[in-house]
Design brief:
The chain is of the alpha+beta class. The chain has three domains: about 45 residues, 2-Layer Sandwich (Uridine Diphospho-n-acetylenolpyruvylglucosamine Reductase, domain 2), CATH 3.30.43; about 120 residues, Uridine Diphospho-n-acetylenolpyruvylglucosamine Reductase, domain 3; about 110 residues, Enolase-like, domain 1 (2-Layer Sandwich). Helix content is about 30%, strand content about 25%. The chain has eleven helices and 14 strands. A hairpin with a 6-residue loop joins strand 13 and strand 14. Helix 10 runs antiparallel to helix 11. It is globular. It starts with 6 loop residues before the first strand and ends in an 11-residue tail after the last helix. Bound molecules: flavin-adenine dinucleotide. Flavin-adenine dinucleotide (FAD) binds next to strand 2, helix 7, helix 8 and strand 10.
Length: about 290
């Protein structure tokens, strides 16, 4: 199949892009790397009248650190994030996760803004953003809005972005010296979307968690910041605490059955990931026993 007819326009400034989005609203689609949008157009899952190609807005490509925040521009490509020394130093979870996003050819074109705006519930970056307590910065002609990542993703391929808004950047608090992170996903083949995955960020206080943020993906219609983490914070983790956390996690999950996995398998893998994460972050091989429980 081929895409429906559309008009194409390539603004050269952010203000021009915002003016176009204000003018065309729901009739327009933003084009970034095109790795998700072009297949959707060709399958006629999307049929906008206007494509607003923001690929020339080089101001949106920057990755920089300032005042305790790592800011990644919407047009930073996946490969830019992977190669960034600032990301490696201040948000290494993103680099750990990015190697699991698709394949090099797609990572050379796909962008952070496009990935987050696409909001695939099996996608790695949205889960990282909720684990890292990121803020997503969106702009329209009316001004800028800053949304907590956990409030940005609201359903399958659905976000809090309005039609006239452009995602311009994501801001992430830089990791401190007690920060640790964990990333793991189960996928059938390298580069496939995950069956279930977990991106986690924690602060350690001795042998306990002072803070633990668990971003699960492919377990529902959006990334999940699991409240089960509260069972594991503030005191040395025991096998009983971990079992409680696993039970609480299972109650929070709402996975879909699809050709990749049934619901029960996704729940089982999520419980396993939680045990692996806690054992890895605390350096406690004894807790890994909970993986098979
Ligand atoms: C074979 C294949 C495998 C893949 N595997 C994975 C994977 O394992 N994990 C994963 O996370 N992704 C995967 N992807 C998707 C890939 O990461 C895409 O790059 C990404 O989802 C979309 O980024 P993009 O820049 O290409 O956005 P586009 O395709 O250009 O746009 C995607 C959507 O976001 C909107 N949009 C884009 N930019 C903005 C913006 N700045 N503001 C507002 N709206 C915007 C568009 O209008 C469109 O609706 C895969 C893609 C393919 C083709």
């Amino acid at each position: 199949m081929k895409a429906s007819a559309f008009s194409y326009i390539r603004p050269t400034t952010i203000d021009d892009a915002l003016a176009l989005l204000a003018q065309y609203g729901e009739q327009a689609k933003v084009l970034s790397g095109g790795q998700s949008l072009m297949p959707a157009l060709n399958l006629r899952l999307s049929a906008p009248e206007w494509l607003v190609d923001i690929g020339g807005l080089s101001d949106l490509r920057t990755i920089a650190v300032s005042r305790g925040l790592l800011r990644i521009g919407a047009l930073a490509r996946h490969v830019d994030v992977l190669k960034s020394a600032d990301v490696a130093e201040h948000a290494p979870l993103l680099a750990d996760a990015m190697v699991h996003v698709a394949h090099p050819a797609i990572r050379n074109k796909g962008t952070m803004g496009g990935n987050l705006a696409h909001a695939d519930p099996a996608s790695e970056m949205p889960a990282c953003m909720i684990a890292l307590d990121a803020v997503i910065v969106v702009r329209s002609r009316a001004g800028e809005r800053r949304l907590q990542a956990r409030d940005f993703f609201i359903g399958i391929y659905e976000t809090a972005l309005a039609a006239e808004e452009l995602l311009v950047a994501v801001e992430i608090p830089v990791a401190n010296q007690n920060s640790v992170r964990f990333f793991h996903e189960y996928a059938r083949r390298n580069g496939d979307y995950a069956i279930v995955g977990l991106a986690a960020s924690a602060t350690l206080d001795g042998g306990s968690f002072a803070d633990l943020r668990l971003g699960f993906f492919a377990v529902g219609d959006r990334p999940l910041l699991a409240t089960a983490a509260r069972h594991l914070i503030g005191r040395p983790v025991t096998a009983a605490m971990l079992a409680e956390a696993q039970a609480a996690l299972e109650a929070e999950l709402d996975p879909q059955e699809d050709q990749q996995a049934p619901v029960a398998m996704r729940k089982h893998l999520a419980r396993q990931l939680l045990a692996l994460c806690v054992a890895t972050l605390l350096g406690r091989a004894d807790l890994e026993a909970r993986r098979s429980a």
